[in-house]
Specification:
The complex is a heterodimer of chains A (106) and B (240). Chain A is an all-beta fold. Chain A has no helices and eight strands. The relative contact order of chain A is 0.32. In chain B, 45% of the residues lie in helices and 8% in strands. Chain B is built from ten helices and seven strands. Chain B has a single domain, classed as Cytochrome c-like domain (Cytochrome Bc1 Complex, Chain D, domain 2).
Chain lengths: 106, 240
């Protein structure tokens, strides 16, 4: 289980644009570096991040090597109402994870 | 008027303080990364440490507050008859009270617990252990700090006392105050303890690094904490 920190604003008004912040614990091994034995370490990165708010996709990104370990991703989102934001990650070695964060209205 | 005087006095105090933490010498962008808990990557370890603490430690440490603990370590352990670092204390606690195996040095689990405990002392001044029996260990630490070592023949003091604030190959030489450990170091792309940081300096002067958990590191840490006494803890720090 890989750890993720998701920060959503505590309370928002409908129509407001807010910043969603995602911090993911992941080695993001590029696939180009030699290890201690001289052999190239196999690539192990997160390849895709998607965010769905109440079933609607609000953000998606493809990730590539050369992104630092423990990537931090922030994106703006217009809040239409209260609901759950589901952020899903996919990556090498069959890595799949879903995290849910609630967005509440003031 | 009284308020203004207080403000002036505070300003004078700040100007008179010649010591600078690594935090103060960082770029504003790195400072911002450390200050915001939703951006500070070390918070991933803190969160992990919180769960580990709840699982193993909370049956004794209830309420689970250890505020000020990290600010006074390394502290005296009566049973061993020597000071121990915070990481060593966590492992001693595991062996003596939790009756389980110690965690490997620099393992994510140990760093997580250390970061969780250290974070609770954030903002408090470093208060070295006042136990008189720690004095010879501290003196040993001072000796290690000022002793020339390695093929390059540098002592810690030659850089971090005599030439702090100048540059070494483009990077600033910090004064070397251990205020933010364990740290998330951008160069490491991960978390590390003070011992890992000291290893970096030791191999930098081409000396053979001490083994993890050795008394030499404990003595150096004890001296460094005394040298930084009164400076605010900013764990878990982010460093370049």
């Amino acid at each position: 289980m890989i750890r993720a920190l998701i920060r959503t604003p505590t309370l928002t008004r409908p129509g407001e644009v807010v910043e969603i912040r995602v911090l993911l614990q992941h080695p993001m091994e590029t696939g180009f570096r030699p290890g201690v034995d001289g052999q190239v370490l196999p690539r192990d990165i997160v390849t895709r991040i998607e965010a769905h708010f109440e079933g609607e996709r609000v953000f998606a990104a493809d990730l590539f090597p050369a992104i630092a370990a423990n990537p931090y991703i922030a994106f703006p989102m217009r809040v239409t109402g209260a609901g759950n934001l589901v952020i899903s990650f996919q990556g090498d070695n069959g890595f799949v994870q879903r995290e849910t964060a609630a967005i509440r209205l003031a | 008027m009284k308020w203004l005087l207080l403000l002036l006095a505070a300003g004078a105090c700040a100007a008179a303080e010649p010591r600078r933490s690594g935090y103060q010498d960082m770029a504003p962008s790195t400072q911002a990364l450390q200050d915001d808990d939703s951006q500070n990557p070390a918070m991933l370890w803190v969160q992990d440490g919180e769960q580990r603490f709840a699982a193993d430690c909370q049956r004794c440490h209830e309420p689970p507050t250890l505020r000020g603990v990290a600010a006074r370590y390394p502290a005296w352990d009566a049973r061993l008859g020597q000071p121990v670092t915070l990481a060593a204390r966590i492992n001693l606690c595991r062996q003596r009270h939790v009756k389980t195996t110690p965690l490997a040095p620099e393992s994510d689990a140990l760093l997580a617990l250390e970061a969780y405990v250290a974070r609770q002392s954030r903002g408090l001044p470093i208060v070295p252990d006042a136990e008189p029996r720690t004095a010879p260990f501290r003196e040993d630490g001072r000796r290690l700090f000022t002793q020339r070592i390695g093929q390059l023949g540098f002592s810690c003091a030659m850089c971090h006392d005599d030439n702090a604030g100048k540059r070494l190959a483009g990077s600033l030489i910090p004064q070397g105050h251990p205020t933010g450990y364990p740290i998330y170091r951008l160069e490491w792309q991960g978390m590390g303890s003070l011992q890992r940081r000291l290893r970096g300096c030791l191999s930098g002067v081409r000396a053979e690094p001490f083994a993890y958990g050795s008394d030499d590191y404990m003595k150096l840490e004890l001296y460094l904490k005394t040298r930084a006494a009164g400076m605010a803890v900013d764990s878990p720090g982010v460093r370049p």
